[in-house]
Amino acid sequence: MDAGPEPASGRLDALIWARLFVFLGVGTAIVVEMRPGLSGAHLAVLLLLVTEIACWAVWTFVKAGGYRAQVAAIAVMAAGGGALATFAPAADVCVGLAALGAGAAFELPLAGALSAFGPGALALSVALTGEAMGLVVGVGAAALGGLLLGISRRSYKERADQLAAVAVARDRIELEHARVGILDERNRLAREIHDVLAHTLGALSVQLEALSALHETDPANFEAIGESLRRTKALANEGLEEARRAVQTLRDDVAPLEEQLESLCARSGARLQLSGSPRPLIAEVTVALYRMAQESLTNVAKHAPGAAVCVRLEFASGMVALHVANGRGPTGPGPLSASGAGHGLDGIKERLRLLSGEVVAGAQEDGGWVVEAKLPA
């Protein structure tokens, strides 16, 4: 399908100046060689020159949408140049210019047909005037050369347009990747804040429940009540510290996992075991395993308060594993065992699956519970 004519910019750019100087040079050569006049061949040259100038102006300055006007202008300019070549061989250039415009503006079948108008008009003129047929060879060469140059220019422009389209598509893809990255970062932030709040509020609920029970059973025991209040305050401060740690994680500025687990186990009364040679882990893996340990210890406080808990961190070749196991609680489930939506473990599994990890959780023979996770690292 025809691509249509090139849209004109409406200003004298470098190409238009080049066309103008070439055309003026050819026109001057024709005037010098065959002076236009008002009679005979001189009148024919004058009319043909005026026609060529008009067609050149339409070809150069017509705006987008003037498809038919450009087809007509190039056809008439080619035919007029061929007729002029009967009187002044310098008009060969007009035929070449018309062929160049046809090759640059239109696809090959139409461009070739328009380029043939020049040699065809010259052949007809030679037949009518009796001039030498050798002129047709020069005009034909000019038409062929102009057509090839025009096709080359058209191909170059199409390649440039394709490269521009590819660049635009690449920019759009980069913008989409950036947008997806922002959404992922928002989801990551929401997940971190959710985990911090869930753990901190769960621990505070357990502590406040214990404080309430202590107040009901022994309201005069101010020392024990004061100690419980201090632990509650410490839990609130730990929650703030967890929020700061979440922000540090988003900046990939996170403490080693073994250090974080050591602090977490010290606060929860759990026993920490290390296996293998500790090594730095990426922030996402560190946070995922820390959240798993945190969620597991919170569940122990809810469902088996007072139970012995062992947290084991294992470093192996290409893999890191975390095991959190607890025995049966001495007093059975705690008063907050029914609290929460029960999606904590599901959230941990989802987080680890995003990192190509796996989680297994289940009851033990002694009535306790174990959660195990493995991640490539």
Q: Give the spatial strand order of the biggest sheet.
A: 1-2-3-5-4
Mean pLDDT: 78
Q: What's the domain count?
A: 2
Structural class: alpha+beta
How would you briefly describe this protein structure?
With 377 residues, this protein is α+β, with helices and mostly antiparallel strands.
Structure characterization notes:
This protein has 377 residues and is of the alpha+beta class. The chain has two domains: 159 residues, no CATH class; 122 residues, Histidine kinase-like ATPase, C-terminal domain (Heat Shock Protein 90, 2-Layer Sandwich), CATH 3.30.565.10. The protein is built from eleven helices and five strands. Strands 1-2-3-5-4 form a five-stranded mixed sheet, with helices on one face. Helix 4 packs antiparallel against helix 5 and helix 7 packs antiparallel against helix 8. It is rod-shaped, with a radius of gyration of 43 Å. The N terminus is likely disordered.
Features:
5-stranded mixed beta sheet, 5 strands, alpha+beta, single chain, 377 residues, 2 domains, Heat Shock Protein 90
Summarize the topology:
Elements lengths: L13 H20 L6 H22 L5 H18 L7 H14 L2 H8 L1 H13 L4 H84 L4 H29 L6 H12 L2 E5 L7 H21 L5 E8 L2 E8 L17 H10 L4 E6 L5 E8 L1
Parallel strand pairs: 1-2
Antiparallel strand pairs: 2-3, 3-5, 4-5
Helix pairs in contact: 1-2, 2-3, 3-4, 3-6, 4-5, 4-7, 5-7, 6-7, 7-8, 7-10, 9-10, 10-11
